[in-house]
Specification:
Layout: H1 3-15, H2 20-27, H3 31-37, H4 45-89, H5 94-108, E1 116-120, H6 123-137, E2 144-151, H7 158-169, E3 180-182, E4 199-204, H8 208-226
Parallel strand pairs: 2-3
Antiparallel strand pairs: 1-4, 2-4
Helix pairs in contact: 1-2, 2-3, 5-6, 5-8
Length: about 230
């Protein structure tokens, strides 16, 4: 297209309210040339408003695209390092599980009472604790009883919450004690509130001596670290 023809098209598009950048892309010339050719064309208030709206929409679209790209990049990075972590752990020995469970109880178990009590909201952690009791300490599920602790604002969902925990642990409802409803000043209901299941407290029956023994495991870990008794 000849230069004079481009100028005619550019001015026509400008009069229609097109932006300088849009005209430059359509006609195939630099924005500075379009700006020069159309400097005498005044846009109406409506055209200016439309251009402003379009610019805001483009900015929002660009922001959303950038945000989505960052999210994808983050997910890819998380998955990459997750694979590295899984490959490094590989298969656990029974001794490794024994030490993991002991450290887990050290962090999350009740060490002040003369009984074995573990409470957590993380379902994977709950399952690891139950497996530790079974494989390393020979404690069957029949010796476990549970108590659900939830915020009182979720009391109406208690039936679903109870079913969630009994299905997860495969512990029958007959071994569940009365729940504990926690009072809270928080009245806001979050969008993911349906995924909230509170915490599960697991207590081992006849566990006084077992409690003393587990405390011994913890002391053993402390002594080994303190005296550098760490093998390859």
């Amino acid at each position: 297209m000849a230069k004079f023809r481009k100028k005619i098209v550019a001015r026509k598009l400008r009069k229609q309210g097109k932006s300088i950048k849009t005209i430059a892309n359509i006609v195939g010339i630099s924005p500075s040339s379009v700006s020069l050719w159309c400097s005498d064309i005044l846009l109406s208030d409506l055209q200016k408003e439309n251009l402003s709206k379009n610019n805001l929409q483009k900015i929002k679209k660009g922001f959303n695209i950038a945000s989505e790209n960052r999210k994808k990049e983050r997910i890819n990075r998380v998955n990459f390092y997750k694979k590295i972590g899984v490959s490094k752990v590989a298969k656990l020995s029974s001794r490794e599980l024994f030490l993991i469970g002991s450290a887990l109880y050290w962090a999350e178990g009740d060490k002040k009472q003369r009984r074995v009590v573990f409470i957590n909201s993380d379902p994977e952690m709950i399952l690891i604790f139950i497996k530790w009791l079974d494989i390393c300490l020979n404690i069957p599920k029949e010796r476990l009883y549970c108590r659900i602790e939830i915020n009182q604002i979720h009391q109406k969902r208690f039936f679903d919450i109870q079913n969630y925990w009994t299905k997860l642990t495969n512990i029958p409802l007959t071994q569940f004690r009365h729940p504990s409803f926690k009072k809270s000043k928080i009245s806001k209901i979050y969008q993911n509130s349906q995924n909230y299941y509170g915490s599960l407290q697991i207590t081992v029956s006849r566990g006084t001596n077992l409690n003393y023994e587990i405390l011994g495991y913890i002391n053993g870990i402390i002594e080994s670290i303190k005296h550098d008794k760490i093998g390859n």
